Amino acid sequence: MDRLSVVVLVSALWLCACEEKNTAPEQQAGRVDAVLTRTSKKSWSDVCDVAPTAPSAIKWPQLTGGLPGSDGAKYRWVNIWASWCKPCIEELPLLTQTFSSWRERGQTVALTLLSVDADASSAEKFLAGRAGLPASARLQEASAAPGWLTELGLGAGTSIPVHLILDAHDKLLCVRAGSLAQRDLEQFQKLLFP
After folding, report:
1. For the segment 82-131, what is each residue's pLDDT rounded down to a tens digit?
2. CATH top-level class for 11-192?
3. Distance from C-alpha of 145 to C-alpha of 161, rounded to nearest angstrom
4. Residue 95's closest CA among 154, 179, 174?
5. Domain residue spans in the chain?
6. Which pLDDT tens digit goes with each residue over 148-181?
7. Which residues have a Cβ under 8 Å from the Cβ of 45 and sit 6 or more positions away?
8. What is the pTM of this model?
């Protein structure tokens, strides 16, 4: 797949992959658009890198801070990010604006941030300077990220951002690697709220 990088042998290379493998949303090929225009029925497998046929509860790695509640939202969108990841930072405003817009229409999706920063203070400093972003949980060990992404069905060398979509019971519906553009979120919205 074009977004999945070659499996890296060391975590340090994985951490560098963020800035090297992701392209700006406006430069990405419209994979979601291309697939959906060819099919009359939309499904998770059309827009996700991993779409389990039988959603099951996600197995979380050890986290600091724990995951916040989803406040009764119909879905939870987990954005795996880092303060040093330029594509991650660039898409955060798009995610928060989009989910706010959906919420105004009664389409509730809880945005949960999950940092893979090795240093907790880096993520905390970043979030402190940006109003409107939710708090972030963090992997207790950033080096656990490649193994966890593999467990989710992605390659160990997958670069962030990575997006997980969970139902109201935290069962995994979709795993999507790479930055998202507005057109991608519009296609996800059609699946979430037909």
Report:
1. 999 999 999 999 999 999 999 999 999 999 999 999 988 898 898 887 88
2. alpha beta
3. 12
4. 179
5. 11-192
6. 999 999 987 899 999 999 998 889 999 999 999 9
7. 51
8. 0.78
